[in-house]
Design brief:
With 207 residues, the protein is α/β, with parallel strands linked by helices. It starts with 17 loop residues before the first helix and ends in an 11-residue tail after the last strand. It has two domains: 40 residues; 131 residues, 5'-nuclease (Rossmann fold, 3-Layer(aba) Sandwich). The strands form two sheets. A six-stranded mixed sheet has the order 5-4-3-6-7-8. The chain is rod-shaped.
């Protein structure tokens, strides 16, 4: 028998193709970035939907006395919510508050005063002691509140209850009240009380 011939095996070293390695690496990185971008977009969309749901849940409750911008809750006797500077300007113009209110509105008026307004008058000192004595008139209705700033208290009260006419001469407060529909504003013009956003009042002079 012939002897089988053995073939000599030679070890071959495989070389790695760097171009293919770089392409596969860049493709893997691109896929990872796309997955991260997709996850971030999904998270943002979910947060936006959750924010919309919370915003819908926190919608302010509309007043039952409002018909569009017309307030059906206003009527005699009128409740007048007095501000600090309105009392001071009334004293400077030598005007009695209750008779002047009735001359303007031609109806019975109930002046209302918050505790924070009375506290501001007490802090003003001796110069405004006459205004403080006037504010303590028993004919004025006292309203209890926990606020320390009168403007915020008035805004919060007229937003919750649309039965008040706000009497003030403060420009910033009037600008904030104009954003609330159905709340008239009373101020002093030409030594008389006049009213804004209440066309049914005939006693107010033309502005």
């Amino acid at each position: 028998m012939t002897k089988a011939r053995k073939t000599r095996r030679i070890a071959v070293k495989r070389m790695v193709d760097h171009n293919k390695y770089q392409q596969s690496k860049s493709k893997a990185e691109a896929d990872e970035q796309n997955m991260k971008r997709h996850a971030e977009r999904h998270l943002v969309d979910r947060e936006a939907r959750q924010f919309d749901v919370e915003r819908i849940k926190k919608l302010p409750v509309a007043s039952s006395g409002m018909f569009l911008t017309y307030n059906n809750s206003l009527g005699p006797p009128f409740h007048i919510l007095l501000d600090t500077n309105f009392i001071n300007f009334s004293m400077q113009n030598k005007m009695e508050i209750i008779p002047s209110l009735m001359d303007c509105l031609m109806a019975k008026c109930i002046p209302c005063l918050c505790d924070c307004v009375l506290a501001e008058l007490e802090k003003l000192g001796k110069k405004f002691r006459i205004a403080l004595r006037l504010a303590r008139d028993p004919r004025f209705t006292r309203l209890t509140c926990d606020s320390t700033y009168a403007d915020d208290c008035i805004i919060q009260r007229v937003t919750q209850h649309r039965i008040y006419i706000v009497a003030t001469c403060d420009k910033d407060l009037k600008r904030r009240i104009r954003q609330i529909p159905g709340v008239p504003i009373m101020y002093i013009s030409r030594h008389r009380y006049t009213i804004e956003r209440l066309p049914e009042v005939f006693g107010a002079p033309d502005s």
